[in-house]
Amino acid sequence: MVTNKSTQNSSKLIFWLNGGPGCSSADGYFLESGPLRFVDNKLTINKGGWHEFANVVFLDQPVGTGLSFTSNQLLGTLSEVTDHFMAFLKQFFILFPERAQDDIYLAGESYAGTYIPYFARAILYHNAVVPQGEIPYNLKGLAIGNGWIDPLHQYVSYIPYIEHHNIATPEMMVDLIAQQDKCLSDIRLADRITQSQCESLVTLILAHTREGSECMNQYDVRLKDSFPECGLKWPAELPQMSVYLTRSDVVSALHASDALQSWTECSSRVSSQLRFDNSAPAITLLPGILEKVNVLLFSGDQDLICNHIGTEYMISNMTWQGLQGFQADAAKNTWTVDGHLAGEWIQDRNLTYVKLFNASHMVPYDAPLAALDMMNRFMGLDTSLQSFSSKLGTDGDGDGDGDEDLPPSKPEPPEPEPSEPEPSEPEPSEPSEPEPSESTPAPESKPEPEPEPEPEPEPEQQQQQQQQPPPPPGGEKVDIDQPKKSLMSANGSAALLLVLIIAGVGVFIVVRKNQDRKKPSGGHDGVQWFPLSGNDFSNHGRRLDENDLHELVVESGIIDSDDDDDDNFGTSRGSRN
Prior knowledge:
Elements: E1 12-17, H1 26-31, E2 36-39, E3 42-45, E4 55-59, E5 69-70, H2 78-95, E6 103-109, H3 112-129, E7 139-145, H4 151-155, H5 158-164, H6 170-189, H7 196-208, E8 214-216, E9 224-226, H8 238-244, H9 248-253, H10 268-273, H11 286-290, E10 294-300, H12 308-317, E11 319-320, E12 323-324, E13 333-337, E14 340-348, E15 351-356, H13 363-366, H14 368-378, E16 390-392, H15 459-467, E17 495-496, E18 499-500, H16 534-541, H17 549-554
Parallel strand pairs: 1-4, 1-6, 6-7, 7-10, 10-15
Antiparallel strand pairs: 2-3, 4-18, 5-17, 8-9, 11-12, 13-14, 13-16, 14-15
Helix pairs in contact: 2-3, 6-7, 12-16
């Protein structure tokens, strides 16, 4: 556990999960939201670490991922994975009873968008029954970045995404449309978390972007990588991290198994075991969870594999708390960090969606300060205590100062004033890169009036809603209080989920140079401005029907924008990390 550095008795506890399945949360620790980064061959302090005001646990799971290990076989279903997580949570609070009353946030990216809703449902069910001798868990929120939550809407987003980013060619489109037909045929037969015919869509896109020995990076479309990896060697710090986590002194300090011969970022064995899991996609759980818990979905706009358009399709077609999608009175808000436009966000009925500009699949890697500010606001913390400035362009609390949170829906009590942390160990050297400069914040937009509460629908409206076509696969609401019995069944596997309790020390020698990154031909710098208000959202987020899926994704110009002058675009990991 990484303890917070600014507030002595922080009541915020974040559990961070990377995805895959089978990718280590060392990615989160060393490359994203953790306290350390590899810079110029050294471990340096990450100024965007999420431990500024919260305690953070980076968890390697399922067993066999990263430095975790098991004496039994690997897990094959999300039900088993969830059982193991709940067993870990129980043991964690036995070891750290002082954290038992903390506000819990489950956070992660990519395939963690599948894990997290399953884990949240199990926690809510646990809290509803609270087995004798156990405690309820104070789950406050879920934060999912570029999440693999709704396969259907993510698969049908690939063609609109590459068209929107000027990546598509006529030859590419012919192949993709044919492959998408096969993909949709498989989805009609069974709505599963992954479909092999649909996964081939990304493979085709990458093959068509090949130029000699290079291809587009599927996690950051502004970059190139060697073919056929196309992003698997990214980020460039991976070789450094891999060598560091294989060192015997580091493995010993982490109390990992001596039997581990090497550290692997993403385990193909773990991924293969879950390949044939028939669990329902996580989108089926979200509506029920949103009845009780705040959810933050955030997307870097330069990611292909779990792209923001798929997330926006999902939200527009999801019904929660009796209404479909964001409503027309849910205002789009701009947002600046250190005076630079960081993105935009919209909030309605316990769901907050944030799109971060010029950020990849790994948002905290590209935009560490923006990601930290976003998370602090979501947790209801006082962002004026941060070491950098941030401002929301539209002020929702009516006082005109632009300081409102990315809400939880219910106000949080004020946090105690931070105090100076006590030094415990020598700190790693500071990064050689210059301090971020402050600039004048962007002008504030005129405050929009607070939306009136939604009136109860009239009987005639209720009848019309009932006559609407059913939502696409994965859109149904699931009762969180009645999960499948197998979800909470006892599991006899003697396995250890290893918490990465890492103290970063020392300097380590790089085995090879950072990979040179180039922008793809035809790319442009700039900010993508994508409409997110209720009315604008419907332009690209209309309800999808099996009969019009094909039409929707191949029609031209389905991505509209109110701000054409601001539109300046750049043109698997086998596992989603």
